[in-house]
Amino acid sequence: MSDKETVTPIVTYEQPLSERMRVFLRLESLFSAARSCAGLQSEWASRAAIEYLNEIAKLLGRTELKQEIIRELEKHRARLTHLQGNPDVDDARLLGLLSQLETLVEGTHEVRGQIGHELRRNEFLTQVRQRSHAPGGARDFDMPGFHFWLSRPAAERQKNINQWLEFTRLQEKAIAMILHLLRQSSQAKEVAAKRGSFRQNLEGQQSCELIRVSMDAALSCYPEISGSRHRISVRFMDWQGDEQRPVQTDDDVPFLLCCCGS
How far apart are CA 15 and CA 20, in angstroms? Predict the structure, then answer.
């Protein structure tokens, strides 16, 4: 590539087609946000990290989440196992993925009770969670213990946050693997939304669990994605500024569409 050539920035939007995938995507985002805040020293970053940890604890408390994670891992393991012996597949990379999946499945099976219970039973996190529902409820006169913790040296706060995150490290790795394999399960294709509208039937195709729309980040519009396992719809909305309601664009919008599934 010459010095004069530039790479067009791309932005990707995702739309899950099941509640299970919605939860996985939310957890992925929360894990990333919590770890980012854990690496910062400010009091406000520590406050945000605690908020993210409590949101993680709440989502991990879903009754069927443990079994849903195991089912997804085993589904991907079965799919990859069928690729063994395929001359077009990198055997070393495939065996590495299968080994990682095996470790994650076994580790998740070994978890006793609901996952994330260490966070939900932690007295300090529980106190913050209970008072944070009220607007501005995390003040020193509401929670002097929280105020004391925030006044501790940054290194001490960061150590605590990383220790709490370690309780859910297995689930973080499992969900990251599930979403990575899902996103890699299909090839994106170039399509266009005529006058800002695109529809496509999915009958006869693989089961779609996640829709990904990638587009030029310089465009002044964004997609609203909806769909089911049989049909998807994408509508591109022109950004009108923060004081005006967005409207569907009249322009044709080229984009990359990927229907991810097994």
Answer: 12
Residues sharing a CB contact under 8 Å with residue 227, sequence separation 6 or more, in sequence order: 15, 17, 202, 208, 211, 233
pLDDT 10s per residue in the chain (262 long)? Answer: 455 556 779 999 999 999 999 999 999 999 999 999 999 999 999 999 999 999 999 999 998 999 999 999 999 999 999 888 888 888 899 999 999 999 999 999 999 888 999 999 999 999 998 887 777 777 878 889 999 999 999 999 999 999 999 999 999 999 999 999 999 988 999 999 999 999 998 866 568 899 999 999 999 999 999 988 788 999 999 998 888 899 999 999 999 999 998 6
105 and 207 in a common domain: no
CATH number of the domain encompassing residue 153: 1.10.3900.10
**Does the reported pTM lie above 0.85?**
yes
Residues 39 and 132 in one domain: yes
Domain-located, residue 14: no
Range of the domain at 204: 186-260
